[in-house]
Amino acid sequence: MAATALLTRNILRNGLSLTLTQTNRALASYSTTTKKNANESLREKVPANGGFLNLLFGGKKGKRELPHSKLLTDSHRIYELQFHIVQPQHFNEYVKLCETALPEVNELIPSKLLGSWTTQIGQQDQVVHMFMHENGYETYEKTYRHGRNDPGLSKVLQAMDKLLAKRYNHLCQEFGFWGDVKPRSGGNIYELRTYHLKPGSLLEWAQHWAKGINYRKDYNEPVCGLFTQIGELYTVHHIWSYKDLPTRSEARESAWGQPGWDECVMHTVPLIRHMDSDILTPMSCSLLK
């Protein structure tokens, strides 16, 4: 509407008389130019530090020739998010089993358990575990076989399974511009924001968030940003860390005060089909506390 109004004012000011076809062509040209200028502005604001960022903001030819994962990250690591819905009557028993057994399990498997959280707000009776498979699917396969073949580990997993009502997992890769997952000291809460995107929109999402993430660092909030490779596709998980809920509110309000954050939101919201937010509390066995 704004583009139409602006063009109409120009027509009247210059005393031009355009046919309907000419007007439509002019509007199309105006829209294309505006979008091109916006994309160029976005590229200028993202540091050109080589690697996947150059590919992500590069030309169409490079994007056609490479799989999306190569445009979004330069890491081979695979992150696994396991979602366990525990039978309510067995929830305390499940948590106790995790806090007792998982530190030992973490020493036995090739993969690394980074986080284990209970859900405070959101999906009740849910526990979320995050594993890092350093060498990608190769590490995942070794851990999977170890869980099936090691008698002691298999016994622990079977004991956990009996307490569950439902479970599922996602195998993900990290967005390179989020940086590596780093251990955190205790006393934090975590927010898991899950976005179910429209098919084909992942690259556009990443382009805007590569800039937008910079507006969310003042409170040391970002933990990791992941996109699914196996599981529910076109799903993005953002994990944030806060001291408490008031700090979360303050951090989010602070982002809105920074010029540019509103543009990130404006361009990414239309890409979302559905989104969820869960507030998580770390277990004692979690590396991310």
Query: For the CA atoms, what is the radius of gyration?
Result: 23 Å
Q: Count the DSSP helices.
A: 11
Strand order of the largest sheet: 1-3-2-8-5-7-6-4
Along the chain, the helix and strand elements come as HHHHHEHEEHHEEHEEHHE
What fold name stands as the CATH topology of the largest domain?
A: Alpha-Beta Plaits
Largest sheet: 8 strands, antiparallel, barrel
- Structural class assignment: alpha+beta
First-residue to last-residue Cα separation: 49 Å
Helix content: 40-55%
Number of extended strands: 8
Average per-residue pLDDT, rounded, comes to 83
Return the CATH architecture of the largest domain.
2-Layer Sandwich
Descriptive overview:
With 289 residues, the protein is an alpha+beta fold. The chain folds into two domains: 2-45; 70-282, Alpha-Beta Plaits (2-Layer Sandwich). The chain is 44% helix and 26% strand. The protein is built from eleven helices and eight strands. The protein has helices at residues 2-14, 20-45, 52-56, 60-65, 68-72, 91-108, 137-149, 151-161, 202-212, 245-256, 261-268, and strands at 78-86, 112-121, 126-133, 164-174, 189-197, 222-230, 235-242, 272-282. The chain has an eight-stranded antiparallel barrel. The chain is globular. The termini are far apart. The model is unreliable at 1-50 (pLDDT under 50).
Walk me through the topology.
Blueprint: H1 2-14, H2 20-45, H3 52-56, H4 60-65, H5 68-72, E1 78-86, H6 91-108, E2 112-121, E3 126-133, H7 137-149, H8 151-161, E4 164-174, E5 189-197, H9 202-212, E6 222-230, E7 235-242, H10 245-256, H11 261-268, E8 272-282
Antiparallel strand pairs: 1-3, 1-4, 2-3, 2-8, 4-6, 5-7, 5-8, 6-7
Helix pairs in contact: 6-8, 7-8, 9-11
